[in-house]
Amino acid sequence: MVLDAERCYQAVLSRDPRFDGRFVTAVVTTGVYCRPVCPARAPRFENVRFFAAPAAAEAAGFRPCRRCRPETAPGTPAWQGTSATVSRALRLIDEGALDRGGIEALAGRIGVGPRHLRRLFGAHLGASPLAVARTRRVHFARRLIDETDLPMAQVALGAGFASIRQFNHAMRATFGQAPSRLRRAAAPEALPSAGAGEGLTLRLPFRPPFDWPAMVQFLGPRATPGVEAVDPDSYRRTIVVNGTQGVMEVRPDGGRACLELKLDLFRPVAPLPSARIEPVTLIQIVERVRRIFDLGADPLLIAAHLSRDPRLAGTIQRHPGVRVPGTWDPFELAVRAVLGQEVTVRGATTLAGRLVEAFGKRLAGGGTGGLTHLFPSPETLAEIKPSRLSKIGLPQARAAAICELAAACAKELELGADSNHHDAIRRLNLTRIRGIGDWTAQIIAMRALGEPDAFPASDLGLRRALAGTGRPSTPATIIRRAEAWRPWRAYAAMILWKEDSAPQAPRSN
User: Is 453 a catalytic residue?
Assistant: First the structure.
């Protein structure tokens, strides 16, 4: 990515927080790189270089500033200024694709050659996929060192390092100090682990503004009984990762531009000696939580684009910081989308609760605070006949659609970062399954796959919100109107749903 050096330098001089995370500034005379908001005296223009991502600065031989702490920045949005291929690759890297395989496997998952993938990363980010993955691990490890009291061995595994030796070498190379010395110098306000037991607390930074009330107002009515619980101040749910069950809680962190994540994990299938958590999955857990709350979004960039339409500008001004709520598990969201066809949000939530009660696994120890079950896995629902699903109140066709969806996900279909809604339709041939169509695919793409331009044009809430003469607009009319909102149509949908005050809308999950 080509950066305008003079514009970047003016941003550094202004210390405008709106530029935080968009680029980093490397100082050739000190060998460090900084955030645009670094409080240190600004260097001379001729002594600085600008990089699109921290990984590019580190690959060029610079180390993070100890004062402004680039590893605590909100991060560059994965899809801002990059190609669709790079965006999907970045999401896979966040999920640990390069922790488990090489660049060849990563490139294969997104349908390009390794050489082409390296070229795209160089052009858009200025760093290789391996450099991006390494920086991701190192920066996450630094946060664990500062914000928890986990032993260094668990920090290393939790950040995705294959060995303690690799971890120590990477931390010294990046920060110029041993991990133990970094912990001794940690800021006094760092959050410790939550005392006894298996609790862990972490901060998840985001780019402000963030409309927390809108987030919980959307998630609350859709909270699956027994699996999720939402109130004005928090979101809680049950989770399972690699056989480890647990409960997570997310809430705003006071006046800081971050959310506070509390994890309580237990009963691993193969526990490590003296381990309070299953550390090898910790970084993936954090990334999945970030996607639930769309913490990688750039709300100012999105608002500037969508505000060009007067129809959206008023709501954006009154409610800044719109996000697209994601999901913990793409399969769970896909099932919810099927349940939400032709029914109200309340009706879909009731059906989801019945599904969990009938087929979900009970949480170890009976659960806590109303969180009692894990959502049924694809393997579980794939073994169930549609007639059994119909007993919870589902029409036969919709029950059959869920069973077929579950069977596909249990076998070959992965609803993850390397797929989009077009892939899902093609591979599952969804148009042949009664009850699953474009609306379902768009909802899955929007909330499960993080596609910022997904847009369920046939949604009744959107049609009502854009009604011209009192009657709902047609999907074709809405699609033409929405062309001006690309590539942020998913965010436009969230804005329009917020405006729609009809009791039964929006009809989306």
Answer: no
